C-alpha cells in the first residue's frame, strides 16, 4: 500500500474498499467513509480485466490514469538483491545484475494493454515494469523499465498468443479443432505435456 501511494498517489485505477468491505468503489482513489466501520476506502485491490470473447482475464498490479486520460498498466516485481558476482555477470535473476525486464513480464504488459483496448478504454502505447529489491539498498531500491507495446518484437509472440486464444474459443463454441502447427506426434514433449493431447490427436471421425 505504501508503494502504491508513493508511485501513483490518487491516479491508480482499482477496487477501493473500507476495512469491513461494506463500502467500495471501482476507479481512482477517493476517501469515502464507511457508515458501518467508519474507516475510509483506502484498501486497494487489483482491477480484473476480463474479455468475454477470448475468455481470458488479466490482473495488472497497477493501472494508472495519465494526465491525457489514457490508462497505463504497470507490473511490480520483487527480486533478490544478489551479490557482487551477480552484478559482474549481469545475472537477470538478481537486482544488481538486472539490465532488462523479463520477456514474460513484457508479454504480460502487452497483454494488459491489448485487453484494455478491447474493453474500449483509451490506453497508452507504453507500459511499465518496476522491480523492487527485497533487501536493503543504499542506492535506489527500484529499477523501472518502460515498454513500448507497439514494437514489433514485442507483438510477434503476443499476436501468436491472441491467435491461439481465438482458435481455442472457436473450438469451445463449434468443436472444430485448430490446426496442429507445433506437434506432429503424440510422442513429442510438448504433446505429452499438453492436457489436450488426447483430444487433439483423435481420429477425425471421433472428434467431438
Q: Which secondary-structure class do the elements indicate?
A: alpha+beta
Number of strands: 9
Head-to-tail CA distance between termini = 49 Å
Are there runs of 5+ residues with pLDDT below 50, and where? 4-8
Order of helices and strands: HEEEEEEEHHEEHHH
Binned, the helix content reads 25-40%
**Beta-strand content bin:** 15-25%
Mean pLDDT: 84
Output the number of helix runs. Answer: 6
C-alpha geometry: globular
Features:
globular, 6 helices, 7-stranded mixed beta sheet, two-stranded antiparallel sheet, single chain, about 210 residues, alpha+beta
Tell me the layout of helices and strands:
Elements: H1 2-8, E1 12-17, E2 24-27, E3 43-45, E4 49-51, E5 56-58, E6 62-65, E7 71-79, H2 84-89, H3 103-118, E8 126-133, E9 142-148, H4 152-174, H5 189-193, H6 197-200
Parallel strand pairs: 7-8
Antiparallel strand pairs: 1-2, 1-3, 1-6, 4-5, 6-7, 8-9
Helix pairs in contact: 3-4
Amino acid at each position: 500500500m505504501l508503494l502504491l501511494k508513493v508511485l501513483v498517489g490518487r491516479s491508480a485505477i482499482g477496487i477501493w474498499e473500507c476495512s469491513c468491505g461494506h463500502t467500495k468503489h471501482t476507479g481512482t482513489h477517493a476517501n469515502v467513509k464507511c457508515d458501518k466501520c467508519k474507516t475510509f476506502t483506502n484498501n486497494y485491490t487489483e482491477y480484473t480485466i476480463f474479455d468475454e470473447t477470448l475468455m481470458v482475464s488479466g490482473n495488472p498490479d497497477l493501472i494508472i490514469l495519465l494526465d491525457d486520460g489514457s490508462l497505463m498498466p504497470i507490473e511490480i516485481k520483487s527480486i533478490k538483491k544478489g551479490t557482487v558476482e551477480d552484478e559482474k555477470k549481469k545475472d537477470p535473476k538478481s537486482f544488481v545484475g538486472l539490465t532488462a525486464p523479463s520477456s514474460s513480464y513484457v508479454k504480460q504488459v502487452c497483454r494488459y494493454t491489448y485487453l484494455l483496448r478491447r474493453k474500449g478504454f483509451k490506453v497508452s502505447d507504453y507500459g511499465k515494469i518496476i522491480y523492487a529489491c527485497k533487501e536493503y539498498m543504499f542506492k535506489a531500491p527500484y529499477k523501472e523499465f518502460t515498454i513500448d507495446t507497439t514494437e514489433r518484437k514485442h507483438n510477434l509472440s503476443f499476436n501468436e498468443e491472441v491467435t491461439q486464444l481465438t482458435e481455442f474459443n472457436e473450438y469451445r463454441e463449434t468443436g472444430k479443432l485448430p490446426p496442429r502447427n507445433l506437434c506432429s506426434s503424440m510422442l513429442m514433449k510438448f504433446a505429452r505435456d499438453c492436457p489436450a493431447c488426447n483430444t487433439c490427436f483423435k481420429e477425425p471421425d471421433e472428434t467431438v
